């Protein structure tokens, strides 16, 4: 069997390749890609900002797919739910080794031997392709009946990333006042989780009105425009939270100057969780004394675990009727147009772009 894939052959060079589709190995699964989410990380990987990559690779770590063939011995997904061909699934796209210190002792991701990409000429789980070949031990989870693929794809790995942050750095408390810097997929996910967790205020900071509106549709109680000065932004936030300031600030902006601003706006006894700066290499000055005087806790997280992917998918499916998640998918591209998909993701035109292999 043959298929096609968008292959990043080197930095800034995507090609559409014909690829062999292999039957699943024992314990694995072959999945027809229904939607492949396009992530800001893909932009950083393609441009080389995320460091050396094992080219040629197939991008795409936010797949929703339909099982076309199950490997020998597979009767359930990795949560024990029975599966058959035709079922919709997502997969946790970081291959873990299951035999290292992180995997077996710390039980944390990523692991020392994590594999994000397989060579494009080999069986491959990248979702910028019409099929994804899931190896044995790559967790996949069946979508609940009625789940809308677009609703699950809308926040992509942003939702597992936000959940990973709350796992590592503590959850949103009931009644908390929360500020989220940046209304991309990670920030929107943090807004949705905070609103559902019973936060008293969920304040979003961003520039474009379309992104602020998306945050409101997911539960933000107030918006603060980046067009205001930093001082005006802080004043507006403190007007909303009261003079103690926000209990929780979440960095999902992905730009370095967000960091000193986040420290500045954090409230007394607050927490500041860094999620968006994975692709922003560099330093920023902060007054360290503020950490003491505010009793401020700063933490960070990345690399969602399989649990975070599972919980994110279930949460999106549960929320799809209550908030307009599926509508966040604003742009669809064929596999051959993956370069365009990266462009609208990079320049912020898209709230969410997806690869739809049925588009020829
Ligand atoms: Zn992603
Ligand atoms: Zn490992």
Any key phrases for this structure?
Rossmann fold; Quinone Oxidoreductase, Chain A, domain 1; 360 residues; six-stranded parallel sheet; seven-stranded mixed sheet; binds zinc ion; 16 strands; alpha/beta; 2 domains; 11 helices
The main pleated sheet reads as: 7 strands, mixed
Task: Pick out the low-confidence regions.
Answer: none
Number of helices: 11
Distance between the termini: 18 Å
The molecules bound to the chains, other than polymers, are: zinc ion
Structural class: alpha/beta
Rg value: 20 Å
Overall shape: it is: globular
Strand content: 15-25%
Q: Please, what is the CATH homologous superfamily of the largest domain?
A: Medium-chain alcohol dehydrogenases, catalytic domain
Strand tally, please? 16
Order of helices and strands: EEEHEEEHEEHHEHEHEHEHEHEHEHE
Count of structural domains = 2
- Average the pLDDT over all residues and give the rounded result: 96
Query: The CATH topology of the largest domain, please?
Result: Quinone Oxidoreductase, Chain A, domain 1
